[in-house]
Predict the structure.
Amino acid sequence: MSTEKQQSHQVPEPDEVTGPWWEATRRRVLLVQCCAACGHAQHPPRALCTACGSSRDLDWSQTPGEGVVDACTVVERAMPGFRPPYVVARVRLPEGVLLLSNVVTEHPYDVGAGDALRLDWRPLPDGRALPVFTPSER
Ligand code: ZN
């Protein structure tokens, strides 16, 4: 029982807005919410477009699976499910949105802003998955 509680505390439960996003992670598809009215892309998913305020025109697009490190830090403290040191990164997707994620690498201290990344997945016990990234081959 206590482990279930811990799990739901770590990973947010899907709601009406984020449900489709989480469902797509079961197919290892990373979605970005985009607005058909004004073309704005945003993450995390919201009930309204943050650019034009529309609630009816929000749609999803599948991101191609690449990213670039916008900012990153190496964490040396142990966290449940993470073996330190590991990289927490703000990743810029081709759509222009920023996603807080991890860069999975044997060389955490070599990761820096501007590095090209490839999308990977960290499976969750319930079949969903968290998007993570690995450094692209140079
Ligand atoms: Zn909009």
In short: The CA atoms of residues 70 and 113 lie 5 Å apart. The chain has two helices and eight strands. The two ends are 45 Å apart (CA to CA). The pocket of zinc ion is lined by residues 35, 37-38, 40, 49, 51-52, 54 (CB under 6 Å).
